[in-house]
């Protein structure tokens, strides 16, 4: 198993543990080792918009990395991802991959959360843990973001790498 799949599996486990501990019921549907077509068809077939779409994995300022059908890394232009997620009418998008928000000037959902610099795996996991602990406790996206960044700081990480973009009405 490669390092990437271990990190993503660890983040999924962290998210599941966080939502299971909270009093608010949150459904988590995951797409491990997802291709871009897996994500596109999942969003297309949803009976209602997802409250949160969370990406965990490799990224840079211009691309998110998915797998292709052969299990190889397939960079997908962030511009195309942005258009896909705007069409999905998701309430919140979390892009938990290095530099995923570095060039982003505005949100792609009413709430867009992501990383503007490189982060290590522990910082990404700490953010997800705090964010989903707060959501499952019934907190708003803003409060959940604050809890996620506090979780990073409490573990000795650098929360200033995480950004919150909110659409203006």
Question: Could you characterize what this model shows?
Answer:
This protein is an alpha/beta fold. 41% of the residues lie in helices and 18% in strands. It has five helices and six strands, in the order H-H-E-E-E-H-E-E-H-H-E. The strands form two sheets. Strands 1-4-5-6 form a four-stranded mixed sheet. Helix 1 packs parallel to helix 4 and helix 4 packs across helix 5 (141-154). Residues 1-6 have low confidence and may be disordered.
Shape: globular
Average pLDDT confidence is: 89
Helix percent reads: 40-55%
Q: How are helices and strands ordered from N to C?
A: HHEEEHEEHHE
Structural class: alpha/beta
Strand content: 15-25%
Distance between the termini: 45 Å
Strands across the major sheet, in which order? 1-4-5-6
Largest sheet: 4 strands, mixed
Number of strands: 6
Note poorly predicted spans.
1-6
Radius of gyration: 15 Å
Question: How many H/I helices?
Answer: 5
Please give a quick description of this structure:
The chain has 169 residues and is of the alpha/beta class. It contains 5 helices and 6 strands, in the order ααβββαββααβ. The protein has helices at 3-21, 36-45, 78-88, 121-136, 141-154, and strands at residues 52-56, 63-67, 73-77, 92-96, 111-115, 162-166.
């Amino acid at each position: 198993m490669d390092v990437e799949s271990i990190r993503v599996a660890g983040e999924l486990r962290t998210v599941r543990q966080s939502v299971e501990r909270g009093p608010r019921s949150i459904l988590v549907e995951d797409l491990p080792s997802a291709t871009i077509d897996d994500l596109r068809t999942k969003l297309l077939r949803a009976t209602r918009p997802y409250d949160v779409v969370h990406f965990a994995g490799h990224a840079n300022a211009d691309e998110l990395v998915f797998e292709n059908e052969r299990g190889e890394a397939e960079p997908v232009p962030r511009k195309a991802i942005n258009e896909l997620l705007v069409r999905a009418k998701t309430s919140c998008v979390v892009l938990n991959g290095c530099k995923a928000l570095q060039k982003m000037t505005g949100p792609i959902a009413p709430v867009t959360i992501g990383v503007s610099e490189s982060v290590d795996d522990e910082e990404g996991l700490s953010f997800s843990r705090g964010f989903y602990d707060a959501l499952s406790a019934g907190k708003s996206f803003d409060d959940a973001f604050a809890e996620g960044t506090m979780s990073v700081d409490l573990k000795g990480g650098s929360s200033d790498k995480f950004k919150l973009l909110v659409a203006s009405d």
